[in-house]
């Protein structure tokens, strides 16, 4: 099975994202996140695509809800 799977469509099937708990300072990976409010793609400057919006996550370390701006996230799909 060496066939490459197509990239997951992030809005349909959430990808695993990397977060840091602001209270405990610990990092974690989770796919248990959801979009908080509106998410939009901005092209500024043209050719550079940026996801603008917020996601909310239930933190496994302190079990409270954190909201992150997408600019702060390390997206495995857009990493260079
Ligand atoms: Zn936390």
TrEMBL record:
This is Uncharacterized protein. It comes from Syntrophobacter fumaroxidans (strain DSM 10017 / MPOB). The lineage of its organism: Bacteria, Pseudomonadati, Thermodesulfobacteriota, Syntrophobacteria, Syntrophobacterales.
